[in-house]
Amino acid sequence: xxxxxxxxxxxxxxxxxxxxxxxxxxxxxxxxxxxxxxxxxxxxxxxxxxxxxxxxxxxxxxxxxxxxxxxxxxxxxxxxxxxxxxxxxxxxxxxxxxxxxxxxxxxxxxxxxxxxxxxxxxxxxxxxxxxxxxxxxxxxxxxxxxxxxxxxxxxxxxxxxxxxxxxxxxxxxxxxxxxxxxxxxxxxxxxxxxxxxxxxxxxxxxxxxxxxxxxxxxxxxxxxxxxxxxxxxxxxxxxxxxxxxxxxxxxxxxxxxxxxxxxxxxxxxxxxxxxxxxxxxxxxxxxxxxxxxxxxxxxxxxxxxxxxxxxxxxxxxxxxxxxxxxxxxxxxxxxxxxxxxxxxxxxxxxxxxxxxxxxxxxxxxxxxxxxxxxxxxxxxxxxxxxxxxxxxxxxxxxxxxxxxxxxxxxxxxxxxxxxxx
Length: 421
Known about the structure:
By secondary structure, the protein is of the alpha+beta class. It has twelve helices and 18 strands. The strands form five sheets. A six-stranded mixed sheet has the order 1-2-6-3-7-17.
């Protein structure tokens, strides 16, 4: 039976860059491993090459748990890496390559845990639905969104789910903290358009849309979004105060995040909404004022903050800039505290007695948003014990992405304990 590092390496060697040629070869590899373990995986495509794999493992209870991950990855330029990003090389105790952290390493842990259970004849304590999805790094239209609409029956009986991004260790000041995600910020990707009067660039402007859009983007980028403490983030701050033995000043959260270093990274992006301009498009010649200018903005808002977020965006953009959504998804959250959170925390502390699990809200988004639309409560839980010097957040979409082999093996043990009870 293949070990988790070997499975992770194999998955990385499939170039599933999104956009690109699709996830089909990686999906067939996953389906083959599951079939060899006696399961009956279902492989389907939302578009040619955009493949997803779903399989069900019978357990002692029909109340099913969904374990999902995505097979696609963001682009990687080989010239910027120490070794080829799709080599899957294992060296210095780490598996290197695009997707090692986000999130082929997690998919490999799920596969290794399930294959190990099958080899030992162990039965999960509840039904498991395993989903290895396409297209998470875009909108999910060819992955999770397609799965919950066209193949809704595959998720019958599922009440809860686990996936990225939580359950990883953050070491600081002698403390090993494991954030478990109980929510994530909503997504509002927007395309902005300013229209004006075309003309010669040498003449006084009548209504220059490039200038209009530039001023609007400047206002948006300069805006200081107010702090909005959601209950899970407030609970996280309380937990960190208890763990470190130093009260966190709620009136100076930016300074407190800087003081706490890696621990501060668990809340620095989760205390307010955000809107970052990311793309610009205008004009076709230096001496021509165009009739329109466009931009894209990555907007994120906290649970319960959607209306306030959009009202603020519209006020900052002003009446001459129109917006349309490229992607709009709600900010899902789950109950906290809850018995299932305690189960996740217990699986961590059983394998790491020094573990201090805490609630957490993800700054970005995951496929949990799609599953929330059919009533599945999603938790961020892909357990990894990490070296203190490894910048976990920096690995996401970063250069020289890698994951420690011992961290993957730890994750397999935690998942096995969680799934078998």
